[in-house]
Amino acid sequence: MKDYMRKLSYIGVLPSDCEDLILKKSNLTLLPFFVLIPATLWSMIYIYLYQYQAATVPMIYILISMLSAFILHKTKKFIIFEFTQLSLILLLPFILMWSLGGFEEGGFVMIWAFYAPVVAIMYSKETKDGMRWFYAFLVLVFISMIIDSSLQSNINNPLPKIALELFIVLNIGAGFGGIFFLISRFVKNIKEISTALKEDRESLYTLTNDLKNANRELEHLATCDIVTKLPNRLYFQDIVYDMFKRAKLNEKIVAIMFLDLDGFKTVNDTLGHDAGDQILKVVGNRLKSVIRDTDTVARVGGDEFAIAIGDLTDVDNVKKIAENIIEEVNEYCPYNDHRCRVGVSIGISFYPEHGESVDDLLVRADKAMYEIKKMGKNSYSIYNHD
């Protein structure tokens, strides 16, 4: 039964409809089907009591409602269906009341007319749309008050008192029950939408965090070397330019070291790339252990590293650091059962003495490093213009 009602409520829904519009359409579509059963019963009772004029009112509602629902199913034009339903619900109870003799004899059916403003206020996008139907309800009440005395004198309602009282109870009970049904369904759907939105927000929050993490990972990949996790050449340049700015402001010196590992190719070719990667990681960690936290070390090539040492006042400190680096790198690097050993040749240049760009200083430090390579490796050299 629930599945059948759900299918009926969705006959006017389009795939492109948003959640709010689906809520409005599904609830308004159920309205004529909800009223169909009591309307049919009351029509049959009126016919049984020979009240044919009163019986035509619910019959008209049934016919027009089913026709409008069929047209909605075929055309999906919900605006026509909505206007038709609200108009029927508003007008026909008043017409039925007038046919029964006015307020005294048929006022109990007015509860059905109140469906129009209630439904419109609940499901309209703007409050003023629902208020229009409420004002129309008040106008019909006012008209009924004007013609009430005339209706009482001209229309004779032969319903027995007990039948009249039974009608009053049934109409008021069913009417308020219907309003309660609509409001409870409305609240239930609102809760479902709220739950769905909450789940969407949680999914969006998770997706946002995943994107942030992915973005951080991409930034890390773009700025760091995959093997050693040290800054790459581009990131090194950005860091060093900041060191240059501070050095210029404080009238200090920045040392740029260019390092090339001696004997690395032999180990890489002999033991394989895994051994080579292991040595690069160990050397990177050893270089970081020698320098300060304010300095930086980067991998700028296959077996080439660069170090920037800032806030210097005396170049002799750099010589001591270079000696410590050579001593650290010369230590054995364990790989499985092997004890690998590499040396390091270091070229050094200074900012601003040897240049004011990172590229120039790296080139000059590289030249100084090659001088050491020619002289026997595993040592350091300071760039000399001559």
Search tags:
two-stranded antiparallel sheet, 386 residues, rod-shaped, Alpha-Beta Plaits, single chain
Explained architecture:
The chain is of the alpha+beta class. It is built from 14 helices and 7 strands. It folds into 2 domains: 2-204, no CATH class; 233-382, Reverse transcriptase/Diguanylate cyclase domain (Alpha-Beta Plaits, 2-Layer Sandwich), CATH 3.30.70.270. A 5-stranded mixed sheet has the order 2-3-1-6-7, with helices on both faces. Strands 4-5 form a two-stranded antiparallel sheet. The longest helix has 63 residues, at 161-223. The termini are far apart.
Strand content: 5-15%
Number of helices: 14
Strand order of the largest sheet: 2-3-1-6-7
Query: What is the N-to-C order of secondary-structure elements (H for helix, E for strand)?
Result: HHHHHHHHHHEHHEEHEEEHE
* Distance, first to last CA: 97 Å
